[in-house]
Amino acid sequence: MKPAALGVIAGVAAGAAVGAASRGPSLVEWPSKIRTAFPFVTGGIAGASVGIKVGTFASFVQAARGRGKGPVSTVAPVVIGAGLATAAAIGGTIAKEKVLGGLVQQSRDLDPYFAASSGNPLTSGSPASLVTMAELGREGARFVGCISTPEDIEAVTGKKPIAEPVRVFVGLDAADTVEQRVGLAMAELRRTGAFDRANLIIQAPAGTGFANTTPIDVTEMLTLGDCASVAIGYGLLPSFLSLGKVGLGAQTQRLLLDAIREELVGRAKRPRILLYGESLGARVQEAAVSAGPLDLDHYFVDAALWVGTPGGQKSDEFHALCAAESVTVDRPELIASVMRTPYPRVWFLEHDGDPVVRNRPNLLADRPFWLSVDGTRGRNVPEEMTWKPGITWATVLVDTLFATNVKPGDFQSKGHDYRADLGGVVTAAYALPADEATATRLEAHLRQLEVERAQRIDMTEDQVKSA
Length: 467
Prior knowledge:
With 467 residues, the protein is α/β, with parallel strands linked by helices.
């Protein structure tokens, strides 16, 4: 039998076996077409790999016996294929640049509704601000444009505001360097009187500059407006394309923390410093505070909440670093079971079934603890899901693509969607006042706000003009 034929037969057999093994449950739901194609894709990759290796090896064996033309006859098609792949890669690079350029422009383009400042001097982008609306970018404009109103505060708490909230955002385009962007943020915090508020939230945004407004909403409303928040962008691409920006984001956070600390040293009265990061933003902020010895007291940090941190060795090491003063919850209902004395300063909100949290390279060869064989599974981890070398890693990788399925107002506590958990967990992590009735009104109002924001984002220029 010719080496190439032997390779094809071996490859088909291997691919069929892998494809069959690929069928099984996953952490989140996939589109039906993806679910159907997945076994063929994984099987094809495995089959091609085995086919090339078997065919090449068999060709060498025949050549050693004085038969055949050696490995060239088997490897030549692969070399040709590699050449075609290289050409495709060059074309792909050009296409990639165009796609990435389009994504960057999308992050710069402002929604018609949020393109003009509300005029509130306590927000960045206002006429009194050192930063223009264009320099905020799409996500920054949304962030400052969603500041809590007196009506929001009274609807949730039944009380009148005692102060006006402050929201500061500095986009990537506001300055050329990290130092300059941090300088602008500090100037904005001083201009707005942010350091005179009782609470100051430092949020690390995600890759596009997305700064989740929900934890800020919760804090603004439950503190009756006595709250300021600040976020600085470090990129304009989605988080999965911004992994290389973690270092830049961490540097930004570190310099901001240093600057705020210097501002507060010697003050008789300081705001409570609250940290918040979600998804890649959590990874960025964790990297910032662990760049040296983890000393939250050094930065006057009263509480930190990190949500859905991407999994991996760095995440595990950071958890261990914070073990003495941290708790991890899957959902608000578990808060009572993890409470202890002294009150936890560091909070991790991580779903048992979040593929972003569970995805890591060692899934390729090692069974993870969350797929243990003793029958103990976390919430939303299917009992039927078993660990298979290589297959589980590929499955969880696809899971991450569909981990967040957002419908405005329809809060879910599943996968990488933490909207249903933030009201209760933010309240607990930041030790905010909220009785049962207030908590109920808060949850309803957060859903209402999200629906309203989604409607505003969808508005056209003509609709904004006629509103």
